[in-house]
Amino acid sequence: MPGHLIRRLHQISVSLFSEGMKSAGIDMTSPQFAALAILEENPGIDQATLAGMIALDRPTIGGVIERLAAKGLVERKTSPTDRRAKSLALTPAGAEMVQRMRPVVVETQSRVLDGLSEAEKEKFISLAEKITLLHNDRSRAPLVIRKKKEVSQV
């Protein structure tokens, strides 16, 4: 059944990511990497915007940011325009971590589709994107697709 296969493939993907990070001596999860990578491209965004950009719910993104801040990789500052909001940015250590992680992530992501030809990989990704976009609104944490200049800066 497709749902079972998707769940199994997710388990395998998480396992490959964890193995890759462990072998590189990095203690990081894929949601933590996603948050760091988005913050690298969009410094100063708020936590809710970040959550939408990586399709995580608010409680989950709160924990991710808490752990990244505790590791000294992300800083939170009070927004100059809304004192209730916190803007997020990478620390220098966070920027270094993204660069250190990127080749490991690229390698582990390519391993997920080992055994497929290049054409099959492209087709798989195309079909997976089509299905996830079609059902995005059914997710408990829908992906918010924004163009870079549309990202709200807090």
From TrEMBL:
Any one GO MF term held by the record is: DNA-binding transcription factor activity
The HTH marR-type domain extends over 2-133
Q: Name the SMART domains on file.
A: HTH_MARR
A single Pfam family it belongs to is MarR
Please, which domain of life does this record's source organism belong to? Answer: Bacteria
Q: Which UniProt keywords apply?
A: DNA-binding, Transcription, Transcription regulation
Decide whether keyword Transcription is in the record: yes
- On whether DNA-binding is a keyword of this UniProt record, the answer is yes
Protein name, entry field: MarR family transcriptional regulator
